[in-house]
Structures are given as C-alpha cells and as structure tokens.
C-alpha cells in the first residue's frame, strides 16, 4: 500500500514499464503470430494468448469484487467477451492491457448489480461483551484470496481489498488500473468511456478514502517488512496457544489495539481485553478441540482451523483465519467461517482425530 501511494505522490503521468506490483508474465504484443490466428477465429491461438494472463487478471477481478466466486464469474465473462470481440482487436495496446480493460468492465457490471462486500467492522461498533450471535445472511461478505505466485503482497492484502470496497465502482477501477496496473489516465478514460478529467477526479477521491481507511502514505506495514522467521514464530505460537488452551501465551502475541472479526458473524472485538475475554470464554473452553494447518491468504499468514466437538472422531473444517501482523505481533484476526473457503484453498474438509 505504501508503494502505491508513493508512486502517485511523485506525480508520474506516464508508466511505460509494467507496474512492479503485477506479474512477470511477458506482455503479448499485437505482432505476436497468435494474434493474427486468433483474429481469424483460431480458438487454440486465443487460448495461448490469454492463458498466461488468467491468474493475474483473476486477482484483478478479486481486488475489484472482494470475492473469489465473483472473480471466477467475472473472469469467465471477460474471456467470453474477449473471444467474441477478438476480431475487432486493433493492436493499439498489448493483449494484456486489452484483456484488463474487458475484465474491468465485466467487474463494473457486477458492482452495479450487487454493490460492495463488507467485513463485520464495516457494520457497526465492536462488541462490548461475549454473547450468542447468529450469522447474517443478508450481507455480501468479503472473502479471502488463496495466494497466487504472481502478485506481490501489497496488491492483495486484506486491508487494501477491504478498503477498496468502500469506493464506488468507477473509483475502484480507476485506482487499480492506475496504481496497481500502470495504466495512464488517458488509457483509463478509454477503458471506462469517460474523460481524463473525470478519471483524475475519481483518482483524487479514491485516494482520500483509502488514506482515511488504511493510512495512505503511512499505511499499514507491508508484510514483507516483517521477517519471515518472526512470522513463523507468531503463527506457531498462535496455533499452539489455541490447541493447548493457553490464554496467556495467546494474548502475548497480540497488539494492544488488536481486532478479531468472524464473517458471517456480525460481531467483532477490539483490544486485548475484549479479545482475551472472547477467546477464554469461547474458542478455548466451549467449542471443542482444535487442530490447525498453516496456509496463506491475501499475501499474509493464515491458518486453517479444524474443530472436533465432544464425542466426534474427526476435526471438521471451521474457518480460514487471516493474520495481519504489525511490529511482529498480531494486529488483526479475520476468521472466515465456513467449509466453502477450504475448497478454494484445496484443503481437506476434515482431519482425523489425534490421541
């Protein structure tokens, strides 16, 4: 996030090279022989052109929409539109930029129909006491993103994607195209069928919102600034503390202002004392026995949590918990509850009970 804002502060008006936040996939130029073949109706040639771009464009759709499922649908729609319209590809830009333009408009159609996705912290104040809560099914919840080898961490961090959801679709698209993908304002205007003045206005408003949400140039520390050894230590400590029921060890890993949210549950907790009260009264005492599998999501450390209730002979998938670290401690826990998330991460839905 810091890098994004630093680039814009320099006032760069043209980005001839690819952004450092996108993939190393070669840019396919109009002179590529497969372009001519695809324009003449060769679907295999079209597939060779777009397949190397599929993963990074999917990540773009996720940033726009905050949901892997929505990103899947938007990508498929974009590829269909690209194939149907490839005969009209004029070669004024790379195939990559052309596909990003189509996918952005496919995402904008989804945003117009569905609106934005949310986290519990967007819906109301933190809970002041632990109580019974039920899932909210009337909210379109933000979801986690299984890691991709192409994206650098700042581009898919949970806080960044969540902040994007507070922007109208046009501002969201303009910011991502300009800051992450390196499009110029003129190119964005062409994509969005508007004027350069409108694009610059949308960018200015988007930056103000993101500055308020994630701190702008100060921002959230990028995960890359936290040494990998400390990340492993924190994740191991987190899983061990929950499995042992060691509340003191757990709280020692938290910042003073830590938050814990659990979509689709609407309640969330802020501060060590509140989180400690919750973890002592619920996960460590009344839920059952926990097992964990370390994974990663949104370019951040994450833990797949499995729960075995009393009398059962297996641990069942419960949540994917994404950990946001600051200064070597856990500043945010976001537990995405539901076994549907496990399928996205190619994780088993159950683990055998251990003695």
From TrEMBL:
- What is a GO molecular function of this protein? DNA binding
For the RNA polymerase sigma-70 region domain, which residue ranges apply?
Answer: 49-117
Where in this protein does the record put region Disordered? 1-23
Q: Pfam families, alphabetically?
A: Sigma70_r2, Sigma70_r4_2, SnoaL_2
Keyword entries, A-Z: Sigma factor, Transcription, Transcription regulation
Which residues does the UniProt record annotate as the domain RNA polymerase sigma factor 70 region 4 type?
159-208
Q: Where is the composition biased (Basic and acidic residues)?
A: 1-17
SnoaL-like domain: from which residue to which, for each copy? 236-332
The record's Gene3D superfamilies line, in alphabetical order, gives: 1.10.1740.10, 3.10.450.50, Winged helix-like DNA-binding domain superfamily/Winged helix DNA-binding domain
Superkingdom as given in the UniProt entry: Bacteria
Extract the SUPFAM superfamilies matched here: NTF2-like (SSF54427), Sigma2 domain of RNA polymerase sigma factors (SSF88946), Sigma3 and sigma4 domains of RNA polymerase sigma factors (SSF88659)
Q: Which GO terms describe its biological process?
A: DNA-templated transcription initiation
Q: Does the keyword ATP-binding apply?
A: no
Task: Give the family this protein belongs to, as stated in its UniProt record.
Answer: Belongs to the sigma-70 factor family. ECF subfamily.
Q: What does the subunit comment say? A: Interacts transiently with the RNA polymerase catalytic core formed by RpoA, RpoB, RpoC and RpoZ (2 alpha, 1 beta, 1 beta' and 1 omega subunit) to form the RNA polymerase holoenzyme that can initiate transcription.
**Under which name does UniProt file this protein?**
RNA polymerase ECF family sigma subunit
